[in-house]
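Weekly structure sync, notes
Attendees: PL (lead), two postdocs, one rotation student
Agenda item 3: pending single-chain targets
PL asked that the sequence for the first pending target be pasted directly into the notes so everyone works from the same version. It is reproduced below exactly as submitted, 268 residues in total.
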Amino acid sequence: MNSRLTLFRVIVFAGLALVGSASIATAVDVSPPEVSWQMVGTDAVRFQLHFHNTDPQATLGVSGSMYSQQFGAFLPNFGQIGIFVVPPMEPESFFDVFFEVPLSSLPPSPGVGSGPALRAALLDQCPPLTWIGNVHVIWSGPGGVGQVGKHNGNIGVCPGGAPSYLHVLTGCPGDLTWALVVNCPGWNVTLLNEDYTPAPAILTGPNWTGWASITANAGVQLGSQCCFSLNLVCAGVPATIDVCAVACECPTVKVEQGTWGRIKTLYR
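Predicted structure, written out during the meeting:
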């Protein structure tokens, strides 16, 4: 699928100085932390790219495109979010690009579950609704050539409860190596195969799929976050998937014997 997804585009800039007679460098850049998105209401997503010139000299302009992808790593582009133009910039200047697209035009967020059964509906908007997926940004021009990917997800976890699972896709044609970077006391993150067995040190390709399994101890404070990274390498090419897990107040399920011998399930 390669349909254009842009609902409308807004370009906003600040701290921008146009290039005069200064010498020219090729340092215009945007890094993964400078690619972000958030929901606009419940049916649209606003993307932001923060381009900057970190070189001591001025840069010329670039133009580029931004694409959506499914959640995971080494996956093909799903569709074009939009195109952009970044003008020349003096040192320490920056230029922000914004796109807003309907949620329905993006790849669907991946499966979220507690055990094999989905439980997203039980979390009552904890964490807040967002789009879980990837973006791929490419640019070129007199000001330089580059590309960057952002892989971002979130998930709710019940402290002291069953693991929460976030489905992970890959498009690597061969085997992958992986490593988790987690620094959250009271939280535990593991990588599992599609059948929920522990993932080996080398993930067998092509196109491995599986689950990130996240648990929180009963003492973890509600509303707290654990943000971790899953680093993958395919044929020497690295990719990082960033996930933030949120400690949510989850429903308590009780099973009671009804007056006429029926079993009732109560949620509170």
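Discussion points:
- The domain at 8-247 is CATH 2.60.40.2310 (Immunoglobulin-like).
- Residues 134 and 151 are 4 Å apart (CA to CA).
Action: rotation student to compare against the earlier draft before next sync.
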